[in-house]
Specification:
The protein is an all-alpha fold. It is built from six helices and no strands. The protein is 48% helix and 0% strand.
Length: 162
């Protein structure tokens, strides 16, 4: 996602060309299920490929890490959006369509399974808990529909978060 922002700022597509295949392999597509969500085994935070919450303990809002984690899925959808734009710039239309469809599938999975009635995002499947960052990350990545912005603003992290 940062490489896309660099391209927008500089117009230089060299990094996009050199690293596209590496980024494509870094997605969690192998863990994508029919519900549109990435499902990963919950591992201890010290494990190599664990879903991490790197906020200070006092700011974690009792987040619950579940196999289908909202923050990981939000980043997956945003990554596929960026990959679709990158592939378009590089003239790789078929791959752009592939990434756009995966982004749409994941976004739909998030909306169908991870959003509560009040428009906030639960931490993941199998919980109704909604830590503030479980809503803040999808909103920051542009995944939250405009109709939910007001409620998300009321639910967003406060300064100091202690």
């Amino acid at each position: 996602m940062l490489a896309w922002e660099e391209y927008l700022a500089t117009g230089d597509d060299a990094l996009l060309r050199s690293d596209l295949d590496l980024w494509r392999r870094a997605t969690y597509d192998r863990d994508l299920r029919a519900d549109g969500l990435v499902h990963r085994e919950v591992l201890p935070a010290s494990s190599w490929d664990a879903v991490l919450v790197d906020w200070p303990v006092s700011c974690r809002d009792d987040v619950e890490i579940t196999p289908a984690n909202t923050v990981l899925n939000a980043f997956q959808a945003a990554a596929h959006d960026a990959l679709a734009r990158i592939c378009t710039v590089l003239g790789r239309a078929r791959e752009a369509e592939h990434h756009a469809s995966l982004a749409a599938l994941t976004r739909e999975g998030i909306e169908n399974h991870l959003v509560r009635e009040d428009g906030t995002y639960r931490d993941g499947l199998d919980t109704d808990h909604a830590a503030r960052h479980s809503s803040a990350i999808p909103a920051a990545l542009g995944l939250a529909p405009a109709r939910w912005h007001r409620e998300l603003g009321r639910h967003s992290p406060q300064a100091g978060c202690g």
